[in-house]
Amino acid sequence: MLEAGRSAGEVTQAEAWADPTRLHHLGRRAGILLDAARSSVAASLSSIANEPIAADEVHFAPSTAVAARAAVHGYRAGLVAGRVETAMLLDLADDRPGSELINVDGLGRVDVESFVAALMGTGGMLGCLQAANAEVGTTQPVSLVADRTAPCDRAGLLVDAGQLIGHGPLPRGWTAIFASARDWAGPAGAAILVVRRGVRWQAPDHGGRGWIGGFPDIPAAVGCAAALEFVLPRADDEADRARDFIDRIREAAADVPDVEVLGDPVDRLPHIVTFSVLYTSGEAIVTELDRRGFAVASGSACVAESQRPSHVLAAMGAYTGGNVRVSLPFGCTEANVDAFIRELPLVVAHVRGDL
After folding, report:
1. Which of 19, 187, 216, 329 gives a 20 to 30 Å CA spacing to 286?
2. Which of 128, 152, 224, 302 does the annotation list as catalytic?
3. Are 78 and 72 spatial neighbours (Cβ–Cβ below 8 Å)?
4. pTM, 2 dp
5. Could you tell me the pLDDT band of residue 15, with boundaries at 50, 70 and 90?
């Protein structure tokens, strides 16, 4: 977590403990801070969007799960989603009769023709399409889908902007987006949901002044906004550095015998790479790398704690065993990348029993 977000949240903790919906001066002060956080996020996101975002379009939530459930609240028809969406969204689709899941290619990119046909085929359907896959980094054709469905005013498009904000511009044409503040090194207890004006949507509860899901955590909202203010002016330079680092890691991983590097090598998030190591388990690789000072992941990015095989890799037709996911944090140094590249072939050989 960035110091900018941490310090802002700590300062706010002492000033904004009251209910922001109350009329007494402590409540009004808390409400002013929450309103300021919404305005800050709106201004920050407007700098990476193709059109301005208003403060009243921004909502906070304690998690992306709460934000996503709120986003689909009120839609009675099914969802149209790619098979590589997060497990959370796939579960939401599974709960709604008539939902349709769209296949992806070997890079993890959704089939545009099938997605558009499903979305426009039945009135009231809501499209759910991630801006980019958090596991293999492949970007999704959100703007193309939006352009193709624009003549149909019945079609909404909910975009999971997780991992994109802070690493690239927002796509165009969405009606709602959500993301976790953790994606830009903000606090873990805050997520955002942005719903465009004119969309037929109503929050599932009467959250306090733009907070959905329980009592407003104003320090988390302020920390979220402060971290985003810090990251976005530096995002382009950071993305260029991260892309160079990931290119080097992709090349180094490909040089290790029997390792398959996954995802689009070009149209991808700049800071993420996933590869599969044959003849071993991803958990063993993760454990050995952790012992040597590197925190990486295995399994699906959204259900890693369950140690279930990656549904993303399965949808791509890729090998799901020996899966390793590397995500570079904001400010990652060249020295850390160099060290990881040196250790990776040694770790693979060690786990395979070659050492």
Report:
1. 187
2. 302
3. no
4. 0.91
5. confident
